[in-house]
Amino acid sequence: MEIRLAKSYGFCFGVKRAIKIAEESPDSTTIGPLIHNNEEINRLKNNFNVDTIKDYTEVKNIKKAIIRTHGITKEGFKTLKEKNINIVDATCPFVSKPQNICEKMSKKGYQIVMFGDINHPEVKGVISYAEGEVIVVLNEKELENIKLGSKVAVISQTTKKFDDYTKIVNYIIPRTKEIRVFNTICNATFENQEAVRELSYECDIVIIVGGKNSSNTKQLYSIAKHNCADSYLIENENELNIQWFKNKKICGISAGASTPDWIIKNVVEKIKEINGIM
Q1: Residue 122 annotated as catalytic
Q2: Looking at the structure, do residues 106 and 26 belong to the same domain, yes or no?
């Protein structure tokens, strides 16, 4: 069986930056998981004593706080400052961008529409910067019963599919007088999605490696599954099932933006081991 890695996969710029910041800030606490990968979070805890709390409301006796890659709410920042906590901001620059756009455009009187998951920490942080309510939707159908204003600004969660974002924008265009569209989808996300789309057409099994609570990893899995029925999402090599590989000729591998190289390497080595005994 041949093993093929996607042309683009794994750690993105924002995650690499956040990991480096955490490693250079030992004995600190992240506000929410730094990234969506439990094994890397555990590594930082064990090697650098970087602890994690759920959110800023749980802050107690903390001297140094690291802001997660997904950012936190405007209120959260304010609370940390009021408590005189040393703030180390590891918010991904691609996440800071929609935060700034949301604040700026809402002040100019634009109704904000955001493509994203309302329960995702990135989205919660972004919409907290708006003056007034933000309409958050997962698809264009959710806009059917919403009255749009005459001026609309549209932004996206950084890890969403570009094609789905385009559908929402195209729905809004004929229903408002003025629209401002901002491409806030991360370049690395787009490149990884295109790479797994191409890879999944070539393979008869695809393994996606990453946190199961990671939005960008789930997007990669969705794309792979659409093109290759035998696609699987795993967090580490221990979740591989030898039965998946029976009669398979080409195995494709990709990984989410929060998946470290050492986990990907372990998965590749385990698949090689499985291939050797089949």
Answers
A1: yes
A2: no
